[in-house]
Amino acid sequence: MSLVSAALPFLRRHSLWLLFPVFLAAFLLAPACGSGLDLPLLEKEAQAVDRTLICPVCPGETIDQSQVELAKQMQALVREQLQAGWSKEQIQDFFVERYGPSVLASPPQSGFNLVAWIVPPAGVLVGIVVLWTVLRGISRRPSRQTAPPTGGEDPDALKPYLLQVDALLGQEPSPDPTNKGGTSGDGG
Questions:
Q1: Distance in angstroms (rounded) separating the CA atoms of residues 122 and 129
Q2: What is the pLDDT of residues 134-163, one digit of tens each?
Q3: Which pick of 2, 43, 126, 132 has the fewest CB atoms within 10 Å?
Q4: Which CATH fold topology does 41-103 show?
Q5: Long-range contacts of range 139-146, CB-CB < 8 Å, 24 or more positions apart?
Q6: What pLDDT, on the 0 to 100 scale, is given for residue 187?
Q7: Dist CA 71 CA 118 (whole Å)
Q8: Which residues are within 8 A (CB) of 180 and not within 5 positions of it... i.e. 6 or more apart?
Q9: DSSP of 77-120, one letter per residue?
Q10: Global pTM?
């Protein structure tokens, strides 16, 4: 009897008690992994604004992700402006005036920028409609299954077709329908 087979009955009987310490540890450590639910309201707003502004030095990173000094200065400025009573839109407008529209993480939903907001969902919808139409057409099309040739056809029934093929190829018609070369079999 192996050690594993001897341990199986014990594990089956005591599996819940063995998992208890794991669940207890997860329950006790979960608050330490929290997302900062106890942050002040001003800090939550500041973090929300930080996620909407792109760092001018690090393309593709918002100022809450970037580690460069300019991003840290922009974060401090966002917090100062929020304390002064500025709205999210006013702060974004301030940074757009200073760095241009490329500082915004998402393009404004107006003017030509609407194309960036409309084309992707429209493309997905068109793709879904095309896929649905194709799949519907495939499922409704009757299957045309033909029996493969068995080779047992009557040679006399094939003679008119073989004569047409010979005529198209510019060969003399063969007297024997099974002689596909157009010659009488004398090798020449």
A1: 11
A2: 888 888 776 666 555 555 667 778 888 888
A3: 2
A4: Helicase, Ruva Protein; domain 3 (1.10.8)
A5: none
A6: 46
A7: 31
A8: 162, 174
A9: HHHHHHHTT--HHHHHHHHHHHH-GGGBSS--SSGGGHHHHHHH
A10: 0.45
Residue 109: phi and psi, rounded to 5, are -90, 60
CB-based contact 157:175 (threshold 8 Å):
no
Q: Compute the distance between CA of residue 73 and CA of residue 78 in angstroms, rounded to an integer.
A: 9
Q: Scan for tokens 């050690």, then name that residue.
A: 3
Q: Evaluate whether 171 touches 177 at the Cβ level (below 8 Å).
A: no
Please count the other Cβ atoms lying within 10 Å of the Cβ belonging to residue 81: 18
pLDDT, tens digit (0-9, with 9 covering 90-100), for 28-62:
777 766 655 566 888 899 999 999 999 988 878 99
Domain-wise residue ranges, the chain: 41-103, 111-138
Residue 113 CB neighbours (<10 A): 14
| 102 neighbors 54 (Cβ within 8 angstroms) | yes
